[in-house]
Amino acid sequence: MTSGTEGVVGVADRLKVAIAAGGTAGHINPALALAEELADRGHEVHFYGQPTRLEATLVPQAGFPFSPIDVKGFDRSRPWTLIQALVKMKRAERTLGADFAQSGRPDVAIGFGAYIELPLINWCHSHGVPALVHEQNSVPGLANKTSAGKVRSVCVSLPVAIDAFRDRVSAGTQIIVTGNPVRRSVIEAERSRGRASLGIPEDATMLLVFGGSLGARHLNQVVAGLKEQLLSRDDLYVVHSTGKGEYDSVVEQLALGEQEARRWRVMPYIDNMGEVLAAADLVLSRSGASSVAEIAALAIPSMLVPYPLATADHQTTNARYLVDAGAAVMMADDRIDEPEFAKSL
Length: 345
What we know:
Helix content is about 40%, strand content about 15%. The protein is α/β, with parallel strands linked by helices. β11, α14 (about 290-295) and β12 (about 300-305) form a beta-alpha-beta unit.
């Protein structure tokens, strides 16, 4: 037993934790927040995800080991795609089994809601390894609803999600409201450090625009169309994260001159989101669960435009938690082309 450091555990108490999270930062960042805390407490954390998705970049950047597995979701409007998805799922389970045979099986597994969790939860269920899942959104996704009957605990960020799991869990499975984990780099971020990293004066007004890790085309287009109005305010700086797939088109639409570019920073993705959030006076964004949690953690005023095609319109439900608390205003995506949006912003 090591002594003298709070949270350090003995060798016998050290857990080997397998985490599956992927697809978008909304799934990955809460998983990284949990992994940070587990590692600080002396446990060993290993991530599993897809080699071509965002997790393959973010997880190694955060310093955690990452092993690739290949899965595929299916299109519910095309039922025949389920066959290929199931075949890949079984292959992924065999890949995990081979990895565990070589490196040692985990003591516990955790899924964060994307399809990537399914082979891990299935393998653990069939091999007696305890597992849990975490649901970030107000309306649970299909992966977590599928996994719920095979885990010891279902953790939810919002109480409204509890009812969706009641008929899906096994006897003895706990459903616990935990909130949504937020990374330490966000919690500990400071406005002055964020301003310094961006080169934005302390007394200027900063608008942060982002649509999630994959971007938001409509939101990007509307904000770019307001360039003249926004930059007419001499003290206003805009930091605009477009999403990697939208970056080139936004840069082309904005056509920023040299002087304009000093006050309108365009980037495909924000790696240091904590510092950038802390630097902002106002956030304009979608209302994914992780975005809402991080905005709330730093108490930044926000204007939220829920993604209209989110399952069961869950981003609107997410946004209402801030709106009802007086911390945000919300506008539907189909109204942001109207003058009222520009006026509110």
